[in-house]
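Researcher: I'd like a candidate sequence for this fold, 265 residues long. If you have to choose between options at a position, lean toward the conservative one.
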């Protein structure tokens, strides 16, 4: 895969560059029918010095019943492979996917979790600190759609619901007829609205909509991370000198003095 040196000298493969907001699956399937990046975010990225160029990364957790196709979906996107044989995930696993979004390096840390009940306690310790919650169900097994609500509730217990983007994904699209898919999608989009999630149908086997889906996830997570950074920089005015951000919280002499008092050793 051709790699290119992003502005930060980070190797980003050519097909991981996002310069405009990826579209949603269908207008009905998206709560925030967003088709453009936020203008402030675009401006901040254009004025490169205004952006803290530290490593930007968002944590994604992939949840759902066993066998619905979570690992296959991640492997199709990250490694472009599909394995017919089922190997249940034990505990958790994660992949780091590098992007360049509006010229800024951005990583998604994608946590794959086990759907089997007996591994749930291990997996749930990894829900914390997620900016994106993806819950998957099998388009050919409506019971797995019912169970997505519980998966999302479990994950939201460990995170600030306001700070999380939620996606509901119908997998194995290749295994259902168009009519069955449309019928299940109608139910799924209703479900998605209840927990403010954006809906997608995908197939890890054929690759249908897999890249579109993860690009949308990355773009919305990037924008959310930039917006909170811009908010923070509004609250604590920063001096933009040679591109470094200096936090003016408390003055350093006072802080140093405090620290020496508390020095434990
Ligand atoms: N036809 C078809 N089969 C799929 C698709 N995605 C996954 N599968 C098959 O479904 C089975 C389960 O897939 P996995 O990705 O291992 O499921 P999982 O959700 O990770 O399962 P756990 O790790 O046990 O939670 C495997 O045999 C896959 O080959 C798909 O898009 N189409
Ligand atoms: Mg798995």
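Model: Candidate sequence:
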């Amino acid at each position: 895969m051709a790699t290119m040196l992003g502005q930060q000298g980070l190797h980003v493969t050519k097909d991981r560059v996002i310069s405009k907001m990826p579209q949603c699956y269908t207008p009905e399937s998206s709560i925030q029918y967003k088709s453009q990046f936020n203008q402030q975010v675009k401006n901040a990225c254009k004025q490169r010095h205004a952006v803290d160029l530290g490593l930007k990364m968002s944590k994604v957790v992939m949840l759902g019943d066993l066998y619905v196709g979570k690992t296959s979906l991640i492997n199709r996107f990250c490694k472009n492979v599909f394995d017919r044989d089922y190997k249940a995930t034990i505990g958790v696993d994660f992949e780091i996917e590098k992007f360049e979004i509006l010229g800024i390096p951005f990583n998604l840390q994608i946590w794959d979790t086990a759907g089997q009940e007996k591994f749930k306690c291990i997996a749930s310790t990894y829900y914390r600190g997620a900016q994106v919650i993806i819950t998957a169900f099998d388009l050919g097994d409506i019971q797995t759609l019912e169970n997505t609500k519980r998966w999302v509730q479990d994950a939201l217990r460990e995170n600030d619901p306001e700070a999380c983007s939620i996606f509901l994904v119908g997998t194995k699209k290749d295994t259902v007829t168009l009519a069955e898919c449309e019928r299940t999608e109608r139910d799924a989009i209703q479900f998605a609205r209840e927990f403010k999630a954006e809906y997608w149908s995908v197939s890890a086997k054929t690759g249908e909509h897999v890249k579109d889906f993860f690009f949308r996830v990355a773009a919305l997570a990037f924008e959310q991370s930039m917006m909170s950074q811009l908010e923070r920089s509004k609250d604590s005015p920063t001096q933009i000198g040679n591109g470094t951000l200096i936090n003016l919280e408390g003055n350093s002499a006072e802080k140093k003095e405090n620290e020496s008092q508390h020095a434990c050793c």
